[in-house]
Structure formats: structure tokens, C-alpha cells
């Protein structure tokens, strides 16, 4: 199904069990401690923490409208969508939209997001939308007056001690897909095609990290997210804001949906985390002070192979018993 995997289970105080297995690509060198993995949508909560840190500094509010930071949205149907709606995937923006197929430049793709229709009225349903996090990345840059990669480094990866986490391209990465669109095996360039068109530094995908950095982030989050956020901000981010809707969402975090959770139902009901399309995940059980990291390149050599859903569930079923 894929050539490589890495995993870790631990607490805020350290690692309980971990491992690395396989090769960076089929027939390639073995996975090592310094191998970096395309985190895909696990980028989203990192960008969410960045947005929350900007809010703590008074540079934005979770209830700010989109047009307040991105003036090009003034007068549009999206003008009053709030930061909170973007973070909870309740903005009404559509998900699963391969904009890269018709829009081959950054300017054209962003214009397609600006002018495209909403799928539903804001606040009426949860629809997982990378478009919303693309806008959050732009909004963070506007509010923080700095490029997104610098904000992530200054507000999240630096304070958390994630020394080898950052946006690509990177050397020593675990391969993802033999991509028909690009015509080659992708190694060290972001897998997500919309992110490629946008230049690789985006709010929805693009971060690469080794196992040790995901362990460190898991420990920080399991311990309450200091030194990243104040306790109240962390609590607001990880609480469910959508219990009355179709899916449980925090601010940039997934809650545990029963049924339907990608990690199964073994983790505690108040647990939270995020998964990534390339086969990655980070999940936290706050009351137990536990974290669970699973990294794979499940899109290698093709995204068409099924099975990651069962692997994720079985991993978490076993991990909670460690």
C-alpha cells in the first residue's frame, strides 16, 4: 500500500513507544530519523495556532469578518465570513475543489476562490474546505504583516522547538505520489496540487516534518499548548463549536465523531486532532495527557490504493492501550 510508516505514542512528559519502518520510496533508502514527511492537512492546525497567536497579540479577532483583513472581498458574498467560520469549516466555502485543473497561476486560483459560489449559507453546516484555510493563510499574512512561513516559524515551530519543520521544498523527504500532472515521482515538493500552484506556502497544506518534531508538538499539545497559547485560547480552540451541526469541529481541529471518526472510536470523546491526505495524523487525548502520531506515505506510488482508513483505526485502537 505504501513504502514507509512512522509512529509515536506518548505523554506531555515523553515517549512511550515509537518506530520507523520502510523506505522513502519503493526501492529507495530506508526511512531514518531525519526523513521528513509531507504533513498535508496536518498543516491546518499549525496555521490555526498561528492565527490564534495573532489573536492573542490583538492583531485579529476570531469574529473579524474576512473583508476586514482582505479588502478585495468587500462587497462580495464572502465579505462577512468570520475567522471563526473559516476555522470551523462552517464558512459555506466548498471542499474538494481541484481548482488547479483550470487555474494554473497563483493569481488565477485565488481569483477563482474570490469569485466562486458558496455551497451553503455560512454557519449552517460543516463542510471541510481547504479554500477556507487558504484564505486563513492570506488573512494571517495581512494581520501579521509578514509572510506565512515566517509567522509559523515565529509563533509555532520556533517556540515549540520544532527545529526541522517547515514549508518545502525540502531534501530527504519521504516520497508521495508518482504524479500524472507533474510527470514524475514527487519527493520534497508539496503533494497538494492547489498548494503547488500557490507556491507551496499556504494555509491548507505544505509543511514537512520528521517524526521527532511531531512527537514534540504532540507533547506540547498534550501538556496544554504552552508555550504556544494561553490556556483559555487553547481551550477555545480544542472545544467543539459545532455540536448542533453535522460534524464536531474546534478551531482548526477535528473532534471525535461517532460514527465516522478517521481514528475510530477508541480515543476519548473529548479528544481532538487532524489527519492529512498523504497518510499523516496527530491526535490528542487531553485528560490523559496523551498524543498519538501516525505518519505514512499512503499516496505512494498512487492515491488510488485504499486501506489507510483501516490502518488509522487499528493504530489508534492499539495505541490507546499502551
Automatic annotation (TrEMBL):
GO molecular function, one term: hydrolase activity
One Pfam short name: Beta-lactamase
Hydrolase as UniProt keyword: yes
Keywords: Hydrolase
Beta-lactamase-related domain location: 21-306
InterPro entries: Beta-lactam-related (IPR001466), Beta-lactam/transpept-like (IPR012338), Diverse_Enzym_Activities (IPR050789)
Entries under PANTHER family matching the protein: BETA-LACTAMASE-RELATED, BETA-LACTAMASE-RELATED DOMAIN-CONTAINING PROTEIN
Designated name of the protein: Serine hydrolase domain-containing protein
